[in-house]
Amino acid sequence: QVQLVESGGGLVQAGGSLRLSCTSSGIIFSINNMGWYRQAPGKQRELVATVTRAGSTYYADSVKGRFTISRDNAKKMVYLQMNSLKPEDTAVYYCNAHRDGSYSFVFYSWGQGTQVTVSS
Fold first, then answer.
1. Confidence grade of residue 30 (pLDDT, cut at 50, 70, 90)
2. Strands 3-7 and 18-25
3. How far is CA 77 from CA 19, 35, 65, 85, 89, in A?
């Protein structure tokens, strides 16, 4: 049974930092492209950042220079370091594995996510 469990969210002031973690089970983690996504109230879920199985990274324009995605294949975990947070980063953050070249084609059911709230 596949499980993706996100953690590390919280309430932080604008300009602050958080580090999100995603632990996986039931998948061959090392062969998957892993992405962080977020969904703000009333908005569609969007890709924030992704790290391919080869280690290449991609970031949404809105987070470039502020967020860093990384992975630990031995621990089957993916991380999102978020710095210089802004109120518009407020959302529920999720991780998932996605198809090559298609961030929107995810392979597994969404977990519960972790809430990030940035106050101004």
1. confident
2. antiparallel
3. 13, 11, 22, 22, 22
d(CA 30, CA 52): 9
**Is 14:84 a contact under the CB 8 Å cutoff?**
no
The beta strands (E) that lie in 8-56 are given as 10-13, 18-25, 33-39, 46-51
Greatest Cα pair distance, the chain, in angstroms, is: 40
- pLDDT tens sequence across 97-117: 999 988 889 999 999 999 999
pLDDT in tens, 38-50: 999 999 999 999 9
How far apart CA 85 and CA 63 sit, in angstroms, is 9
Question: What number of CA atoms fall less than 13 Å from residue 14's CA on the CB side?
Answer: 5
How many whole angstroms separate alpha carbon 28 and alpha carbon 40?
30
